[in-house]
Specification:
Elements lengths: L9 H5 L27 H9 L1 H4 L13 H5 L16 H15 L47 H8 L19 H31 L8 E4 L20 H4 L3 E4 L19 H8 L14 H4 L9 E8 L4 E8 L2 E6 L5 E5 L16 H17 L12
Antiparallel strand pairs: 1-2, 3-4, 4-5, 5-6
Helix pairs in contact: 5-7
């Protein structure tokens, strides 16, 4: 039965609906939800019908290898080598569907290939389980006592104070993560990343075989990062460290974007929407947020934005975070609270020293004013106002 943090899809999947029908603006989908080795949805349905003997091998109870008993049985975090073989694992299934779409499409198309990895639980299949040795992994970015002046939920995640609360983050407590366990997690995570690398290579090969390699824009992004033990934290959550916020953003556009070119400055995933529309020659609708990056991509400018704005709400904990990042500072404010965070990313790139109480009132005032301006600028302006106030 589908469970997890995507309740909007549970009844849709359980109803037996056609999981390839038009959905959220897409003409065709292959809906799978979550981060299991066989995610609920079309993948699970197809595997159960066509390969019942493989389907029976899903889940942590069928694990082929588990290097640590605690990591195997901890909620959300478990690490194991799944019994599901590479050819039936979620990443392969998603790439297969995307390749099928490319091969069967004649004419212009837009395809969103949403691979659920790398993500907890950590479970690279087959040869990807052995790609990286835990003993070779580097130590995380951390400093003794660094959580002492942070907002209280930082220590709460470390202590496991939110056991049973669906924060979409780590529930059991980062304090249980010894260096050995962190290295096991890192090795598994990098194995999942490598499997994605191989899947992207297959997608590019499909474009090449279909003769559309040189007239197709390819964008590679991720929705969030992973702490992997940095700052004594794991997974993701309402802590806006660089480990979580900084994600891949790679674009290939033959004939328009020079290969190997890097753009200075900052950009955000919200900029994808207007960028894709402009590349496709489609008008950006009124009220759309984000800034098109086409001028930077075509060489009209060598810099993107000077700052980016980030929102994060975690209702079960009563947290509402608003963050502004520029190339020098990061400020995070919490609604209704007198605590916050300010880091000097130039002198303190690891974000060890919180300047909220010791950086001076002038710095806090300037950054807070800029954050407020970003909040106002990013308010949704649709539908249009019917009155002046």
């Amino acid at each position: 039965m589908p469970q997890g943090y995507w309740p909007e899809n549970v009844r849709f999947i359980e109803s037996g609906a056609d999981l390839t029908q038009p959905y959220l603006g897409f003409q065709n989908i292959a809906l799978g939800c979550g981060h299991l080795d066989v995610p609920p949805g079309l993948h699970e349905r197809e595997l159960a019908e066509r390969f019942p003997e493989v389907y029976a091998q899903r889940g942590r109870e069928k694990a082929l290898a588990a290097p640590d008993g605690w990591l195997l049985n901890t909620r959300h975090l478990y690490v194991r080598k799944p019994a599901i073989p590479v050819e039936h694992y979620a990443t392969t299934w998603v790439v297969d569907r995307a390749v099928d779409f490319i091969e069967s499409t004649d004419g212009p198309f837009f395809a969103w290939c949403g691979i659920p990895d790398p993500h907890h639980p950590f479970k690279p299949p087959g040869e990807y389980w052995h790609k990286f040795a835990p003993e070779d992994e580097p130590p995380p970015v951390r400093q003794e006592g660094e959580l002492d002046d942070r907002p209280p939920h930082f220590q709460g995640f470390w202590e496991g104070r939110y056991e049973g609360v669906n924060t979409d983050g780590f529930l059991t407590g980062s304090r249980h993560l010894t260096d050995e366990r962190l290295r096991i997690i890192q090795a598994a995570y990098y194995g999942m990343v490598t499997m994605i690398d191989d899947g992207v290579a297959r997608l590019l090969a499909a474009l090449r075989a279909g003769g559309c390699e040189w007239n197709t824009v390819v964008i590679f992004v991720s929705d969030h990062g992973e702490y992997l033990g940095d700052h004594r934290l794991i997974l993701k959550g309402p802590m806006h460290y660089e480990s979580l916020l900084r994600v891949p953003f790679v674009l290939r556009c033959p004939g328009l974007v020079q290969a190997g070119r890097s753009i200075e400055g900052l950009a955000a995933l919200i900029d994808l929407f207007p960028t894709i529309l402009e590349l496709a020659g489609v008008r950006v609708p009124e009220g759309a947020q984000g800034t098109s990056l086409v001028p930077q991509l075509v060489g009209e400018s060598d810099r993107a934005q000077d700052e980016v704005y980030i929102e994060n709400d975690v209702d079960p904990l009563g947290l509402r975070l608003r963050t502004l990042v520029d190339e020098r500072y990061r400020i995070t404010c919490y609604s209704g609270e007198d605590y916050g965070e300010i880091y000097d990313l130039e002198s303190d790139p690891n974000e060890f020293v919180n300047l909220w109480e010791r950086g001076g009132t002038a710095l806090k005032g300037e950054l807070t004013a800029r954050l407020l301006d970003a909040v106002v600028r990013n308010q949704d302006r649709l539908p249009p106002k019917g009155a002046h106030a």
